[in-house]
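Technical annex, item 7. During the second reporting period the consortium partners agreed on a shared format for inverse folding records so that results from different sites could be compared directly. Each record opens with the tokenized structure and is followed by the designed sequence. A conforming record, contributed by the partner at site C, is shown below for reference.
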């Protein structure tokens, strides 16, 4: 499944963020490790913080619920605990997994505050 706004320009991962005018002119906003290509396998991607449970960078298919290959690049992010070689889940049933990445919008703060810019996010799941 792919969800997308109209963020233009080159993609460096499965996430793309842009600050745009109402007319559609866009300025890309850097998102560190947007494709989960950096960091240790079995760990969190660089620059991302777990807010509930945890998630793991993995190179490919781990369980039947995982995709057979990354959307782009060589790695993807999984909430599957088998990705790190465990034989039993360390989490209670129904555990929510979540992470966040802080993005610096200070170069556009005045324009955003004035209502002259909007954020557009594009991603694939």
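Designed sequence (site C submission):
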């Amino acid at each position: 499944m792919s969800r997308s706004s109209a963020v233009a320009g080159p993609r460096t991962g499965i996430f793309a963020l842009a600050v745009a005018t109402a007319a559609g002119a866009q300025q890309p906003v850097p998102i560190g490790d947007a494709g989960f290509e950096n960091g240790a396998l079995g760990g969190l991607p660089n620059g991302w913080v777990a807010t509930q449970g945890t998630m793991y960078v993995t190179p490919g298919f781990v369980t039947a619920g995982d995709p057979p290959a990354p959307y782009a690049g060589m790695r993807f992010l999984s909430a599957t605990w088998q990705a790190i070689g465990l034989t039993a889940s360390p989490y209670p049933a129904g555990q929510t997994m979540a992470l966040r990445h802080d993005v610096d919008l200070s170069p556009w703060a005045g324009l955003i505050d004035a209502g002259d810019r909007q954020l557009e996010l594009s991603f694939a799941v």
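The longest strand covers residues 118-124. The chain has a mean pLDDT of 75. All partners now use this format for quarterly exchanges.
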